[in-house]
Amino acid sequence: MSAPLWTAAEAAAATGGEARGDWQINGVSIDTRTLQPGDLFVALKAARDGHDFVAQALKAGAGAALVSRIPEGLPEDAPLLLVEDVQKGLEALGRAGRERTNARVVAVTGSVGKTSTKEMLARILSDQGRTHAAVASYNNHWGVPLTLARMPQDTDFAVIEIGMNHPGEIEPLARQARPHVAMITTVAAVHLEAFDDVAGIAREKAAILDGLEPGGIAVLNADIDEAPVLRQRAEQLGVSAQWFGARAPDARLLATQVTGEETVARAEILGAEAELHIQSLGAHFAMNALGALLCVNALGVDLAEAIRSLALWSPVTGRGAREMVELSQGQVLLLDDSYNANPTSVKAALDVLAATPVAEGGRRIAYLGDMKELGPEEVALHADLARHPAIAQVDQIHCIGPLMQHLAEALPDGKRGGWHADSAAAKADLPGQIGAGDVVLVKGSLSMKLASIVDGIRDLGHGSRNSDANSTK
Q1: What's the maximum distance between 2 C-alpha atoms anywhere in the chain?
Q2: Which end of the chain has the smaller Cβ count within 10 Å, N or C?
Q3: What distance in Å separates the CA atoms of residue 295 and residue 185, rounded to the nearest whole number?
Q4: Binding site for ATP: which residues?
Q5: How far, in Å, CA of 3 to CA of 67, rounded?
Q6: 146 DSSP β-pair partners
Q7: CB of 66 within 8 A of CB of 90?
Q8: Which residues form the Mur ligase N-terminal catalytic domain (predicted)?
């Protein structure tokens, strides 16, 4: 029988809290809908106060609950960990979880691609030792400590994703994670509502380097305009940096080719040529794979074995996953990238769509939803997508949301599909818009709920999800 993740005594010592009862737990959860028996339920205050769900969590089999007050109606012997502040208690548990392990840790941030890169790293490292990684996009003020608190003590490798919406968010999360390697995938015009310019975003991303362990390594994108900002911060901190990109000294992308269901990339990594096989289409995946390979090499992993493991990775649902949908008259290839969107990732997704072969009589179709948090330039950034070169290879673009209306107006008449105020209206109009042989991209910010468009396309046929499309939150 495996050891528990936390005992009551260990959790109390980690948080400075009071354990009521002699319990032990095997997981940590913040959501009663996904809670597993034996989990510690963390009663965070978000849209609702988690204390209102403690009784429900315990009834569902939670091993204990982390609370700042005892909810009414609980039995006297309810297993609890009582702390002054639940968020701070979770952070303390996460720091203790990180402290007690000898795991080699890599942390990933970036405006685009951090979740897919985190998944690449987890897939590669899982063939080299016991690997623990953030689930879904658990990368914020509760996601990072939750991931650390869930980490088993005998973990060999950990992959932590770190995100932000506002200045000052990354550094404290990086200091909790204390990575040995920190990677910045890219810096782009995302969250401009909270920053003066892209250089400000770069400075915030560079704050991940503040959390590096002594002797830690930064893995940075050499191709972006803001690379000097990242270099300056690394030099200020005395951090050794390795660079990836089309013109990078450490990992250089020489060529990419889309062949069927995969991207094949030729690269030079630390002086040796290599061929990379990636089970998804797009040069951006190949570029992030270069950075991931530098990361695992810095962790001491065999590079040749890592390249072989990379070929077994594929994107998760909502982040570029591909699946065939069977219609009565034939097949449709669905590119599900519905989880998130910003100008850089939308252009990359359109590049993938443009490069994807279509069957005879098939078309390339895109359903694009609003890109959020772009600040004063949001209208121009949506309209400017009409000038992206890949548009020439796309047959029809359906626009969803008030901001995407500006793209609809900027598109040539022959490219313009329908415009809808929301995903529900667009879903209702799906019948008749898609036919056999088509390749269909669905892309938008999460709040636009374009996953319903994905579900609507599936409903047109009787296909099932591709076996490599894993679930996400």
Answers
A1: 70
A2: N
A3: 11
A4: 110-116
A5: 24
A6: none
A7: yes
A8: 25-71
The residues spanned by each domain of the chain are 6-87, 101-310, 321-460
The string of DSSP codes covering 195-211 is -SSHHHHHHHHHGGGGG
Give the Cα separation of 118 and 137 in Å (integer): 9
- Give the CATH superfamily of 6-87: MurE/MurF, N-terminal domain (3.40.1390.10)
Dig out the tokens for 60 from the structure. 């569902």
Write the CB contacts of 453 (distance below 8 Å, at least 6 apart in sequence).
338, 367, 400, 423, 426, 427, 430, 442
pLDDT recorded at residue 89: 98
Strand (E) or helix (H) holding 168: none
- Closest to 67 measured CA to CA, from 39, 45, 34: 45
Q: Are 278 and 310 in contact (CB under 8 A)?
A: yes
Integer Cα distance of 68 and 80 in angstroms: 10
- 342-362 pLDDT, tens digit each: 888 888 889 888 878 888 889
pLDDT for 341: 84
Copy the structure tokens of residue 135: 């689930």
3-state helix, strand, coil in the chain (%, to 5): 35, 25, 40
Residue 1 has pLDDT above 80, yes or no: no
From residue 471, alpha-carbon distances to 133, 137, 318 in Å are 15, 12, 9
Task: Give residue 236's identity as a one-letter amino acid code.
Answer: Q
Q: Residue 463: what pLDDT?
A: 38
Binding-site positions: 110-116
Residue 312 — very low, low, confident or very high, per pLDDT cuts 50/70/90? confident
Torsion angle of the four alpha carbons 35, 38, 39, 43, in this order, in degrees rounded to the nearest 10:
90
Residue 115 predicted with pLDDT over 80 = yes
Which pLDDT belongs to residue 320? 66
Among 110, 106, 242, 125, CA closest to 182: 106
Q: Which tokens hold the place of 265? A: 């990339």
Query: Which position has the token pair 């080719």?
Result: 257
How confident is residue 246, by pLDDT bands cut at 50, 70 and 90? very high
How far is 293 from 299, CA to CA, in rounded Å? 10
pLDDT of residue 465: 37
User: In terms of DSSP H, where are the helices of 272-403?
Assistant: 283-298, 303-310, 343-355, 378-383
Q: From its phi and psi, is residue 102 left (phi > 0), alpha (psi between -120 and 50) or beta?
A: alpha
- DSSP state at residue 212: P
How far is the C-alpha of 264 from the C-alpha of 280, rounded, in Å? 10
CATH class of 321-460: alpha beta
For domain 101-310, give the CATH number.
3.40.1190.10
